[in-house]
Specification:
The chain is of the alpha+beta class and about 240 residues long. The protein is built from 5 helices and 9 strands, in the order H-H-E-E-E-H-E-E-E-E-E-E-H-H.
Length: about 240
Amino acid sequence: MAGEFTKFPTVSAFMAQTMSELGLTIPASYVGNTDVTVIQLLAFLNACGQDLCTMNDWQMLHKEWTQVLAPGTLTYALPTDWNGFISGAGWDNTSTFPLIGPLTPQIWRMIKARVATAQISIQYRIVGNQMVLMVSPAADTVVFDYYGRGWILNATAGGTYRDNVAADADQILFDGSLLKPMVKYRWRNAKGFDTSAEADEFQAAWDLVVGRDVPAPTLSIGPRATYPFLAYGNIPDTGYGHP
């Protein structure tokens, strides 16, 4: 079924559709093209895609970072595509305690001044695109959920992502109906044209795409706090199966 759906288009397909709607001549290729209009539209595509990465907590940018901690090492580089941690989603898989952080500079300085011994929970802060631990732990493994910046699926290296266009065959992972009015808006705005239609098109697409990106939880105003089914709220962590 590959190629039957256009929600996540290739760069080539996206550019052809966008230029067609703008009334521009469609070239044979885009990346590496020396035409000024093509160069400008690709620049707008990169800028809009990178902007979208920070405008919502997109499920397709949700990643997991597993880091093995080594005794004596306090500083660890963040993932290269790191674009922010998901609050409350950092855990110590070895001790099964949640991580404490990222600490503010004030709290960090207070604890450093008062506590010099090992702590039950790992405490950390983010400085210079690195995770810095309060004290050196024993050999340990921690896991974070975070948001990445990889909105482009690399056409030449399967399973790898980028935050910029490098080939016509690269696949765009943002919904085309959302990204296209952004690019058209920037191009028309740069030319001094009216942009009201593109602004309305973007807002309508935004409401639909964001609303459907992740299903909303079911809320109840009744007295029951949880569903009457087996779920995380009423099952134990261990003790399954026969003794």
